[in-house]
Amino acid sequence: MSSSSDDLSSLRRLALYSSLLAIAIAVIANLAYFSAFGWDLKAGFYGDHAAILGRGATAASLLRWGVIGDLFYGYLLWIPMALFLHRRLRPLKPWLADLGTVAAFAYIFVGAAGAAMMATAGSSLVEQYANALPLDRAAIATSFDVLRNVVFFGLWQTLDPITAGTWVASVGLLLKTERRWLSSLLIVIAVGLFSLSLMTMLEIRL
User: Is 22 exposed, middle or buried (0-12, 13-18, 19+ CB in 10 A)?
Assistant: First the structure.
């Protein structure tokens, strides 16, 4: 029992440190990312190619490092938290904790794959556009738009909200008897995530 408790405490500390590191990286990465889009927040949120293509190698580099930061702060650094919550909450209702953890890892790895694609292919297209002939720029813009549709709308704003929402909802339901206010908050967040996915499917852009 003591060994199990020690393991849980170690996992809790790892989850805490990983979360704090994610927050620190998020600040720096978002500064780089939105700078690449000329501080146009809406364009950055939707990956609008018109706001970044033509901004040159500097924007390509900022995009690359901003999205690499997202790869870590938005996804990979949450692995310890997913493991901790699974270990902590599974005794309450094993099937629901297992479902939430599967959803958590789906969110993490699908989102991380999208970030890796945007960091490599997206930044490369921005760089190519700066050096391309006028006749070639239309094709590069089309390629960037296709990539944006796959990553932003297909992965990050359709599939990710479903998987993240399932994870958050499962944690909220498992905490219902222990922390009612936190449980209610998590369920509201999950509903918001599901709504974002539905809005993206219906092509509703705020």
Answer: buried
Q: What angle do CA 55, 74, 205 make, to 5 degrees?
A: 65
Long-range contacts of 101-108 (CB under 8 A, 24+ apart): 101/167, 103/163, 103/164, 103/166, 103/167, 103/170, 104/78, 104/163, 104/164, 104/167, 105/79, 106/159, 106/163, 107/75, 107/160, 107/163, 107/164, 107/167, 108/75, 108/76, 108/78, 108/79, 108/82
> What are 110-159's pLDDT values in tens digits?
999 999 999 999 999 999 988 888 888 999 999 999 999 999 999 999 99
Name the pTM for this structure. 0.89
| Domain assignment of residue 54, yes or no | yes
In 3-state terms, what secondary structure has residue 52? Answer: coil
The number of beta carbons lying within 10 Å of the beta carbon of residue 115 is 25
What backbone torsions phi and psi does residue 146 show, to the nearest 5 degrees?
-65, -45
Report the distance separating Cα 162 and Cα 147, nearest Å. Answer: 21
> Domain containing 74: what range?
2-201
| Cβ(183)–Cβ(176) below 8 Å | yes
Pair 143, 122: CB distance under 8 Å: no
Torsion (CA) 11, 17, 21, 23 in degrees, nearest 10: 90
Residue 152 lies in a domain: yes
Q: Give the total number of structural domains in the chain.
A: 1
Site of tokens 């922390």: 179
151 close to 49: Cβ distance less than 8 angstroms = no
Q: Is residue 165 part of a domain?
A: yes
